[in-house]
């Protein structure tokens, strides 16, 4: 019945590894970056992509900077 002993041994070892990982894992500060949904937006003026949080916004339009927002609004006064 060596096979059964071997299986039990493997099961025990994997259980130990699992328990060890769980213990060490809980000791570590589970610091997942709690960032806001970082949707990439495209500047309507120059086409550069930047995170929504850093973008200037005008309704549904996003811009990389205040200048580009102004420039866009000058070119599209109807928007
Ligand atoms: Zn731009």
Name every ligand kind in the structure.
zinc ion
Summarize the main sheet: 2 strands, antiparallel
Shape: rod-shaped
Estimate what percentage of residues fall within beta strands: 15-25%
What is the strand arrangement across the widest sheet?
1-2
Helix content: 40-55%
Structural class by SSE content: alpha+beta
In the predicted model, the low-confidence regions spanning at least 5 consecutive residues are none
Using DSSP, what is the number of strands? 4
Oligomer: single chain
List the helices and strands and how they pair.
Layout: H1 2-27, E1 40-42, E2 49-51, E3 56-58, E4 61-63, H2 66-75
Bound molecules: zinc ion (ZN).
Notes on the protein architecture:
The chain is an alpha+beta fold. The protein has a domain at 40-75. Helices cover 46% and strands 15% of the residues. The protein contains two helices and four strands, in the order αββββα. The chain has helices spanning 2-27, 66-75, and strands at residues 40-42, 49-51, 56-58, 61-63. The chain has a two-stranded antiparallel sheet with strand order 1-2. The radius of gyration is 27 Å and the shape is rod-shaped. The site of zinc ion (ZN) has 8 residues, from loops. Zinc ion (ZN) binds at residues 43, 45-46, 48, 63-65, 68.
